[in-house]
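Late entry, evening session. Most of the bench is empty. Finally got around to the prediction I had been postponing all week. Sequence below, unchanged from the version circulated by S.P.
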Amino acid sequence: MSEESENKPLNNSEEDKISEQSVLYREWKEKCASKTSVVPVITNMVGKMKLKTSHKELDLPYISTHLRNADYQPTRFNGCFVRFDKPKGTILLFRTKVLLITGCKTAEDAYSISRRTLRLLRRLGYPDIVPETQLQFVNISAKVRLGFPIDLSEIASDKTISKDMVYNPDINAALYWKMKKPKVTMVIYASGAIIFVGARSFIDILKCLHMTYVFFVKNSRDREHYSQRNVVNDKAILEEENGRQESDPKKGQ
């Protein structure tokens, strides 16, 4: 059975939610860029939705045999995977009428894939299936490269925030900083690369970087060299650090 290629317009609640998030996103993106000169890039979004239908549960074996790109192996995992290419993302369906979506990099893609999944399920014998709860993002991951090395040992020794950190260089080279407000976990590497996990919105990630950037500059390995506000815009410094960290193999060729 072929999937519908056309995407129907968003409903009013989805449009309002995305519009509101877009305004806040632009505001915090401008604040973040003006202070740090770098902006995180989303790598994955995980969303959750509860479905409502007159059926007691979803027939995953039947669904997996009637949908393209569907994979159901109950001996390994109790969910059915349905993969989409345009937009790219993966749906996980469970018998309990729970839908998870992962692999998306924008909220628009996540909403689009969830709507396509509902239309497909209606054609497979669930004509009354509708969302019982709105799609909620439970985990957003992003990454950013500051452009300068960080002294992780000095950060971990700061008594004011050390209780929120986990750093054991003998086991893992990264420092884990679990922030409470906003609730985001940063995985920090000495090279200046930071991975954000556990966020509920991309705005929380922007707030997190906006709040901590000055602290990272203060604890950089060469404070005099990286004390300027627009240090990330300095191409010479970036080329020097990229060569030292081998962050981009193409530049090394």
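Two things to note before I forget:
The first strand starts at residue 41 and ends at 52.
The CA atoms of residues 93 and 99 lie 5 Å apart.
Will write this up properly tomorrow.
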